[in-house]
Each structure stands twice: as structure tokens, then as C-alpha cells.
Amino acid sequence: MSKTLFMVLMGCKPSGRHTEQHDIFFGVADSINGLVPAMKSSWPDAGKMHVDVWRPVTRVDGYRVEVCPRAEIGEESGELKLFFVNLGGYKDNDFEEYHYKQLIVAKDIDEASRNAKQSPFYHQHISPHIDDKYGIDVDDVYPVEDIMDESSRQQFGIVLTAAADGNTVEDKLHIGYLKFSDLEKI
Fold it and tell me: For residue range 96-142, what is the model confidence (pLDDT) as tens digits?
């Protein structure tokens, strides 16, 4: 079975907190349940953790996304990279900061940031920003390879190729609360 890159929105309510906390996890495995140990170790002392959303990452922006052993792809895997962008924004009279997490294929962080500004989210919120800064900034724009879990980062690189079949449909999002133990059933 070939390895797949997964993007996971994890949640938990750490001790002493009043609301649920979230973080994004990227890892490589045969299946989503193969990531449970790495997800647990990525957020120590988080308490009861769960998954709110997950997806395999095999297509983004009209590109096929493959993970390959680092030894097979060398240092440079191509001109384009896969970026994770976390936009944040506000709405009038709403006590909330909204977030829009997206994957973008681009040459560099500046191009990924420019592309993020084209999203509907960016145009529908007051003071949209990449998290923690007003205005577009590079704080929450990361090459995915740089933020994969340690084991995945050491073993695998990401290779992007234009989808020869013209298919631009991205991977299905699996949405809904799942305990880690429920992942074993997938």
C-alpha cells in the first residue's frame, strides 16, 4: 500500500481551559488510523483528544500530491511547494475569530499569501489576516513539508505534478467528531 499525506484538525479541551482548543496535524501513513500515535505525541498533556476534520491530501490546485521517500527525491523536489495557510478574520458584532485553513500550491510564501487573498473567506470577513497579524503576513503560512510530524518529515518529501487527467477535484473532507478510538474503524 502506498503512503498518503493526511491533514487533520485535532481538538481537545486541556485542563484549565474553558473552550475547546484546535490544531492542525500533517503526517504520512498508510491510513488515517496509522497516525494516532504521532498525533498523541504531537500535543502532550492535551487530555482527551479527538479529530474534527481530516482529509487525505492527494490533489490540490490541479496538482497530484505524492509522498516519496526522501532518498528517492533528493534535496529539491521541484519549483512548486505545497503550503498550509491559516487565514483568520472577524465579522461585525460577532464575538469570534473565524479561521479558514487551506492548502495552496505555489513557488514561495509570498505567492501562497497572494493566492490566499483570492479566497471567498478573505473577502467576507472584516480585517482578514493570516492568524495573529492584521493584514496578510507570513506567520501562519508554512511549507507543509516543514510542519509534518517529525517521523514523516525525516522519511518523506512531497512531490507535486500537474494532474495529467485534468481532474481538479480535491480530496473529500471527512467532517465530524471522531474519538481516536473511532479512527481504528476507518
Answer: 888 889 999 999 999 998 888 888 877 776 665 555 444 433 348 89
Domain ranges of the chain: 1-57+171-186, 59-165
Backbone angles phi, psi at 116, to 5 degrees: -60, -30
Considering the entire predicted model, what is its pTM?
0.87
- CA nearest to 100, candidates 89, 87, 109, 111: 87
Q: Say how far apart CA 37 and CA 180 lie, in whole Å.
A: 10
d(CA 183, CA 186): 5
Q: Residue 28 corresponds to which cell in the numbers above?
A: 504520512
| CATH entry 3.10.20.10 includes domain 1-57+171-186 | yes
- For 69-84, write each residue's pLDDT tens digit: 988 886 555 789 999 9
CA-closest candidate to residue 146, choices 9, 1, 61, 24? 24
How far apart CA 128 and CA 122 sit, in angstroms, is 6
Residue-wise DSSP of 19-41:
S-EEEEEEEEESSGGGGHHHHHH
- Alpha-carbon distance 50 to 78, whole Å? 35
**Residue 137 CB-half CA count within 13 A:** 12
